[in-house]
Amino acid sequence: MTSPRPARWGVLGTANIARGQFLPALRQAGGAAAAVAGRDPARTSAYAVANDIDRAITGYQALLDDAAIDAVYIALPNALHAEWTIRALEAGKPVLCEKPLCGTLADTERVLAAARATGTFLWEAFVFPFHSQLAQIRQLIAAGAIGDLMEIKSNFHFALRTDANIRLSAELEGGALLDVGCYPVRLAQEIFGPQYSAAWARAVTGGDGVDVDTWGVLEYPAGRRLMLSCGFGRSYDTATTLEGTDGRISVTNPFHPGPADHYTVEAGQTKTQTMAAPGGERSFTAAIRHINAVIRAEEAPRLLAIETSLGTALALHDLAVSSAAGSAAAGAGG
Fold it and tell me: How many Å apart are CA 31 and CA 28, to the nearest integer?
């Protein structure tokens, strides 16, 4: 018997996230990097050669029209997600779109409507729900290892080294909350569910009028809450704790765990430590492996954007509105 043909992926954009995360994981998952599309022919060709991608294509639509492409990874700035995700869905290409799915709630709703109308599969690139680490943590919580889970404290910070970065562009819908604050929000959704009762946030503004340091709270029923902190001004930090009535689970990196990451369970006199990523599998690999299997009709799709993305978008919207209101009130008071 011959093995099934690898799923042939096309990449929209020449972003660092594709180079550093998606493409290595795609190869681990058994997929093929068939093409990359960009607007600049020379840059796109150089990117293809440097990253061992079969072909360089000039123009995003040309890649979507290519019958030799089975699925598309969208690694464009947030402001371009809606247009090109909708075009890909209408072209019948399953899509893995970088997070956040869109920079605004209205665009998210448009994209999800297109996914429903076309029936084409769409995933938002929060890949940690596919990872075995989250499954293990869920099992511990369900088994009462820390009592009743009441609070999630979650950070996502890193230091931007240059001012010439799309994350600092308001026009491209950058900012810390959308870029990395979305991770704690999605984590809380995975564990507490999508129904929060209140949102509060404050931010420091920088760059081209975007938030560069944001902190906030999402309140959930029964007194549970997410306390999040995110920004571009300090060293890499994804420390997260899940606080229960009888203990806590401390996680070094719940979002992109690597072989050196772990979680620690502390409950009474018990303290255990488990490695998160045995074998060195990349954080994107499990998600891409699943999508490849869906494309080959070997698995039913899980964690589709039509099931998961609206709750995250609503929470990000409400946090941003709260932050803007707080800034306006502070300005009026000054």
Answer: 8
